[in-house]
Amino acid sequence: MTIEITNESGVEVDETVLLRLTEHNLAQLNVSADADLAILLVDEGAMESLHVQWMDEPGPTDVLSFPMDELRPGTEEAPTPPGLLGDIVLCPQVAETQAQAARHTTLDELILLTTHGLLHLLGYDHAEPDEEREMFGLQRELIAAFGASERRRS
Prior knowledge:
With 154 residues, this protein is of the alpha/beta class. 51% of the residues lie in helices and 17% in strands. The chain contains five helices and four strands. It has helices at 15-28, 44-55, 92-102, 106-121, 129-153; strands spanning 2-7, 35-41, 63-67, 83-90. A four-stranded mixed beta sheet has the order 1-2-4-3, sandwiched between helices. Strand 1, helix 1 and strand 2 (35-41) form a beta-alpha-beta unit. Helix 3 crosses helix 4. The longest helix has 25 residues, at 129-153. The radius of gyration is 15 Å and the shape is globular. The two termini are 25 Å apart.
């Protein structure tokens, strides 16, 4: 599995935590070890440009996902085939503002946003109430399991 993380945001981010998170989540979702994923951290100006270009919405956003091969979660018996998952773009500055409002750390917010972006790459959405319940429930489960695995590392 290739997970490439590039930080062009100008904000220091613990990329090793994001890497462990993504590896953990992909394993939990039974995604092939031969799947590729890129995570890009950008500043507000770059994120605003992407947000306008791809979503036709003004202002920077927190996370954007760009799926490539339309891969879906697998099972233990039948993992997701190899392929390109796509790109997750994060904006640490927006994440920091949201983290302050939610009263947790910027890293906690980036963990949430990375997980959210990954689920979008795997076909999850939250446009309808039932989709939102499913996606956000799985998001909470993945983040809780990752937190437990991180505590065991300590």
